[in-house]
Amino acid sequence: MIGDLERQIAAFVDYYNNERYHESLGNLTPADVYFGRDEHILKQREEIKRKTMLKRRLRHQTENA
């Protein structure tokens, strides 16, 4: 019984730190921030956003030309 509770707590802590995105951390996981992956991830997101906006702009221009 105690072992099961410990496993469940460990699973939650692992999820909380490694999988759950935190709004207060810029929608990163605590592990991303702790291990210094945050800047790289945020730069990737910005590049994806920039490319997406460019594609939308081009599509809008061709559809309305």
Give structural notes.
With 65 residues, the chain is mainly alpha-helical. Helix content is 74%, strand content 0%. The chain is built from three helices and no strands. The model has no long low-confidence stretch (mean pLDDT 96).
Write the layout of secondary structure elements.
Elements: H1 2-18, H2 30-34, H3 38-63
Put the structure in a nutshell.
This protein has 65 residues and is mainly α. The protein has helices spanning 2-18, 30-34, 38-63.
Task: Write out key terms for the chains shown.
single chain, 65 residues, mainly alpha, 3 helices, 0% strand
Q: Approximately what portion of the residues adopt beta-strand conformation? A: under 5%
By DSSP, the count of extended strands is 0
Overall number of structural domains: 1
| Cα shape | elongated
Q: Extract low-pLDDT stretches.
A: none
Largest sheet: none
Separation, N- and C-terminal Cα atoms: 68 Å
Helix content: over 70%
Average pLDDT score: 96
Strand and helix order: HHH
Query: How does the helix and strand content classify structurally?
Result: mainly alpha
* Number of discrete helical segments: 3
